[in-house]
Write a structure and sequence with these properties.
The chain is of the alpha+beta class and about 180 residues long. Helices cover about 25% and strands about 25% of the residues.
């Protein structure tokens, strides 16, 4: 009965020995590859690198002393002129808004006139929803308080009130020409 145990132990010992021999061969091959790698690293390290650019020269700036602390800040409104001219034009905030004041001027189209010309001419304006509105001088249209000043066969002239940016208002002429198709 001892014979099979001995042969099994001999087989295991043979396998271990073979594994050790294979590991030794692989390690020998690795050390040979390491020598090639070390030689390549040494070659790369011995190469001369590109020249380094010189440090740029620092520019010297002339010093400036700010002496206007006591003057008015140029970015704040003037104390003398706030831009709100009490005698200047102002929109009437108490008047009821008209339907065409809901739309910007560039979205409205003049599509025609009614009348024989002169003072009784009525302009026809189409809004973005496709509804045709009639208007005469002193009607309002556009989002900038535009008051119609004249209705002609080919155009409607008006004056808009736009903020001037410093609390006041300025008048700006505008017109809508007849749509040509």
């Amino acid at each position: 009965m001892n014979t099979p145990a001995i042969s099994l132990m001999d087989t295991r010992a043979s396998l271990r020995l073979a594994a050790l021999v294979l590991v030794a061969l692989f390690l020998g091959a690795c050390t040979r590859g390491m020598a090639d790698l070390e030689q390549k690293v040494a070659e790369v390290k011995s190469r001369k690198g590109p020249p380094i650019e010189p440090i740029p020269v620092m520019k010297t700036f002339e010093t400036f002393e700010y002496t206007a602390q006591s003057l008015r800040d140029p970015f704040s409104p003037s104390l003398d002129d706030e831009g709100a001219n009490p005698q200047g034009p102002r929109p009437d905030m108490n008047r009821p808004r008209e339907p065409l004041e809901l739309y910007p001027l560039d979205s409205l189209d003049m599509v025609g006139t009614l009348g024989l010309g002169g003072k009784d001419t009525t302009g026809l304006i189409k809004d973005p929803d496709g509804v045709i509105h009639r208007l005469r001088p002193n009607n309002y249209m556009g989002q900038n308080y535009g008051r119609v000043t004249a209705v002609f066969e080919d155009r409607i002239e008006l004056v808009e009130l736009v903020p001037n940016g410093v609390g006041g208002w300025i008048e700006r002429p505008a017109s809508i020409a007849l749509e040509s198709k």
